[in-house]
Specification:
Layout: H1 2-8, H2 12-24, E1 26-30, H3 37-45, E2 50-57, E3 61-67, H4 71-79, E4 97-99, H5 105-109, H6 125-133, H7 138-149, H8 153-173, E5 178-182, E6 196-201, H9 229-247, E7 251-257, E8 264-269, E9 274-280, H10 283-298, H11 300-315, H12 329-341, H13 351-356, E10 365-366, E11 369-370, H14 389-401, E12 408-411, E13 416-419, H15 444-463, H16 466-471, H17 478-481, H18 490-496, H19 502-525
Parallel strand pairs: 1-4, 6-9
Antiparallel strand pairs: 1-3, 2-3, 5-6, 7-8, 8-9, 10-11, 12-13
Helix pairs in contact: 2-8, 6-7, 7-11, 11-12, 14-15, 15-19
């Protein structure tokens, strides 16, 4: 649609800034069960014009209300009372989270109107498979999966609101700090239900540098000095973590993980329903988010392929929500980007090509690494490649099923295979920190499992007689790849496992057991 084309052309930073500003004009209301939508909006409008709103279910009905003016929130807050503390005593922190109840429920319940609720999670794989089977071809299947799994406009607003509510706390100590989402919430590859990675940024303080040139004095703040940046990060996060734990409405299960390579605070934000990870600004992580944003915006096939392959990897236990020796979603996504750079003609440009297109304002050197690349999407020439998603999906499995992982590494800067600099089973160059391998965690058995599954999938797609399967009502195309292998015909799989070391097969079996245990745990935990 035309509207979408317009949205897509904005730079990453423009979109971020716009959404953060939007979030500051937003409140979240827990609504009474029998609600008349018109009455609610009518009342709220008495405090100012409402730009947009939606309802969603999360242990009761909630409404996200975005006002046109920030002042409307102050006006509404003036009318809101503090909960009467009979058995509990309250922490008197006034946030933008409110509870509305009906004054006389009986008479008002009669006026209840049915609400449209925005889904905040995706459908289960079983239901997805049924939907996919009704499509006409594999490309359509992949777009159906994308539409079911991708973040909705409403869900993105909720993510930015969660960041904005955390920022209300950091403001108390650091008035010019911001809290911004990064990673899958903003890189166009997030799926409904994924965690919100957010970071605390103080970089706006650098804008003063130009003003300091005036006048006869060198002037600076007196600030507490610490031996390392890491220690400062740990202290700041420790205090903010305590704040959220002690005073944050709806912030539960706060865990401070301060000794990690990247110190962070994990917490569950009940009002929005998100699991959140808060860390202190990591400019390189932002650059990675922006790079993926650009790739995701350049061609609609990019996101469709990523969502399908990620879903496939999750079904077969190649990726996992807990850290370990398996491939991460980030590594897998980078492998897909590399594959798309290698097509003829390429579907997306290499990072070096994007760097060539960069102008002055795109120059970024972070910790000695050059992270410059073009931010204006309109400067990038659209691809001339017209391959269908059916072809790309099959060729992806074919390509990595036969990739020489022993010898070659994956380099997105150059868009070509280069000799491995060291002996990790899977070596994917960090696009920005050139001496790091983003898949260092992956061990040989996991890589071999990936290769085996890729081969199996390429084989299934090649030998398939789709029309026959459609007639038989059997899962076909992408749907056939989303059913754990070995369920339908275990003997087939064994033939293609020949030539693998018994040690590898043993650890494959262990990881399969582990996956089952994990999914069991998850099912029980829900």
């Amino acid at each position: 649609t035309d509207a979408e084309v317009n949205i897509r052309k904005k730079t990453f930073t423009e979109v971020q800034t716009e959404r953060l500003e939007q979030a500051e004009r937003t409140v979240l209301i827990k609504c009474p069960p029998k609600l008349n939508e018109k009455k609610l909006l009518q009342y709220l409008s008495s405090h100012g014009n409402i730009n947009s709103h939606f309802f969603f279910e999360n242990r009761g009905i909630h409404a996200l209300i975005e006002f046109s003016e920030k002042d409307s929130i102050a006006s509404l807050q003036d009318a809101i009372g503090i909960p009467s503390a009979a058995e509990h005593h309250v922490v008197p922190f006034k946030s933008r989270l409110f509870t509305f109840t009906l004054k006389n429920p009986v008479s008002q319940a009669a006026e209840e109107t049915p609400l449209h609720l925005s889904p905040q999670s995706h459908i289960p794989v079983k239901e997805l498979i049924q939907k996919l089977c009704r499509a006409d071809n594999i490309s359509s299947q992949m777009y159906i999966l994308l539409n079911e799994y991708q973040l909705t406009e409403e869900n993105i607003k909720l993510r930015f609101l969660a960041c904005s509510l955390v920022r209300d706390f950091t403001h108390a100590y650091f008035p010019d700090s911001t809290v911004k989402p990064f990673g899958s919430s903003v890189n166009t590859f997030g799926k409904l239900g994924c965690d919100v990675d957010m970071f605390l940024d103080f970089h706006d303080t650098r804008k003063h540098a130009t003003k300091m040139k005036k006048g006869p004095f060198e002037m600076e703040y007196q600030m507490k000095r610490l031996p390392s940046e890491r220690l400062a990060t740990q202290k700041i996060l420790s205090v903010i973590g305590d704040c959220l734990d002690n005073f944050g409405p709806g912030c539960v299960s706060v865990q401070k993980i301060l000794n990690a390579r990247c110190p962070l605070v994990k917490f569950s934000h009940q009002p929005t329903g998100f699991q959140c990870d808060l860390s202190v600004s990591n400019s390189i992580a932002i650059k990675s988010s922006e790079l993926l944003y650009i790739y995701g915006c350049l061609d609609s096939r990019v996101r469709a392929l990523v969502f399908s392959v990620r879903c496939w990897a999750r079904v077969h236990g190649l990726t996992n929500s807990v850290p370990g020796t398996w491939i991460t979603n980030f590594s897998l996504t980078m492998m897909i980007m590399f594959f798309l750079q290698k097509r003829s003609p390429p579907i997306i440009p290499t990072l070096d090509q994007l760097k060539e297109l960069a102008d002055k304002k795109d120059k970024h050197v972070i910790g000695g690494y050059d992270c410059s690349f073009v931010s204006d999407l309109s400067k990038i020439k659209p691809t001339e490649n017209t391959e269908t998603l059916d072809v790309l999906l099959g060729d992806f499995f074919e390509y990595f099923g036969n990739f020489d992982f022993r010898k070659n590494s994956i380099n997105l800067r150059k868009g070509k295979e280069v000799n491995k600099p060291e002996s990790s089973p899977l070596y994917i160059w960090n696009p920005f920190e050139q001496d790091l391998n983003i898949s260092k965690n992956v061990n040989q058995p996991q890589l071999e499992k990936f290769v085996a599954m890729a081969r199996e999938s390429a084989w299934i797609l090649q030998k398939e007689d789709n029309t026959q399967q459609m007639i038989n009502k059997e899962p076909w195309g992408l749907a056939a790849l989303l059913i754990p292998f070995g369920k339908s015909n275990p003997s087939k799989m064994k033939n293609r496992m020949k030539g693998m070391g018994s040690e590898t097969i043993r650890s494959l079996l262990d990881s399969l057991k582990l996956n089952n245990a994990n999914s069991l745990q998850k099912a029980v935990g829900k």
